[in-house]
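Curious: can you check?
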Amino acid sequence: MAPLSSIQRLVVTIAVLASFVTFLDGTVVTVALPAISRELGGGITTQQWVVDAYLITLSALILLAGSLSDAYGRVRIMRIGLIAFGIASIAVAAAPDPLILIIARALQGAAGALLVPSSLALITAMMRGEVQARAIGVWTAFTTGAQLAGPLLGGLFVDYASWRLVFLINVLPIAVTLFLLPRLGVVDRPTGVRIDWWSGILCAVGLGALVFALIEQPHQGWTAPGIWIPGVTGIVLLTAFLVRQGRMEHPLMPLDLFRIRNFGWGNLATLFIYAALSLNGFVIGVYLQQGAGLGATAAGLASLPLTILMILLSSRAGGWAGRHGPRMFMTVGPLLMAVGALLLLTVSEEFSYWWQVLPAMIVMGLGLSLTVAPLTAAILGAVDERRSGIASAINNAVSRVAGLLVVAMLSTIVGGTLDLGGFHNAAWVTAALMALGGAVSWIGIRRPAAPTQTGAVPAA
């Protein structure tokens, strides 16, 4: 198998670094939540909003960002996103109270929405076939590694410095990416594609209203006007968004893409798998501190086996899927993760990381390594490179919305309190979601047709 060329390695490096900051910032906060709650107050509701404020704008605007990437150029949109993300990160670190923190997190998510689709689209637009699958495998290993290493880095800052420094970790990768971008040699040329701003508003406001209702309903109940009115409004606006997508000439989310078998079924699998990953990541980071009594660093170290296995195996899994097809990997991987989630049911009042958590992390790490790169390659490899930006945006939006909704429903899932019983409830739900992801993959995913090109596609 020929190694990646120098330009291909540069593309992958830029894509990894640009995505790194959004993936890292989405998870590094997890182990900082107890410290944020202690300093600023607000309990579990503040913890949910710190996570979901970021995910709301990231999820809602990532489709708009995909269209902007296709319309105005991936490099230009990536550069704007990097600068805005850095500024928002500083605002988060300086927040004096929960409200300012949540607002700054929402702005951070909006900037992050510009980064992920434009960065991954660089790979899908400039490489095809087995080379693309291998490159996506490398991208997946490091970006998912950033997600999983985030809690460890966050824990170190919380225990030995301040939770505020957690949000400044991304300054260095932002600076390096801005330095490398001009060396890519890609000239952005506007395509004249019309941007559907109204659809972006419908999606953002609809998601925000629905998530508000899901987070706040445990305190007021579904019958309270302050809950059911936003809930119904959110559903109506999201329905209007979908209807509008079917009627627009240049929609934010082209519904015809879902008629492509691997794209449609792959995104359904993404919904279940990433909901499970988000739920598991949240409860592990918080319960190991508040329930098991570990420090923030120790809680962050709990996920280190997943990080190591992802870095070691994900690139290989991407190459295997390129040769043998993604179906088996996307089936076996989630089922392994379901087994890993069920192993967390062994966690008891007499807590032992080595016997109760570590086996689950190893099994989940193996399953995750087999799943993520083949999943991404199956979805994006099914779409023509000219629509790679919007396809990447849709897939990332699906994964973010999955995490957004499951975190919003956290109080309902755990029974109001993240104690041992709530932790076990979350493990059952995680396992069920993973099993659904594996079943959907087996039913829907097929091996793609042989590509016409296996090398790099010249940059426009």
